[in-house]
Amino acid sequence: MNPRPSSTRHWRKPSRSSGGGGSNCVEVSAQKEVVSIRDSKISTGQFPYLAVGPEAWQAFVDSLKAT
Hints:
Residues 10-65 form the DUF397 domain. By secondary structure, the protein is of the alpha+beta class. The protein is built from one helix and three strands; from the N terminus they run E-E-E-H.
């Protein structure tokens, strides 16, 4: 897994993050081989983010939908 630098990705916020100013959520950048997740309060420059495989991300999303 070799994700692109965070500054060259297209980050998006979940549609339900608009409440409370939308600052308490995560942003996601999905690519073919990796899904990257970052804190939306820190959205510029090179900073830590979590990178997982697409299968792990889908399992996470499915578990949220099941609750």
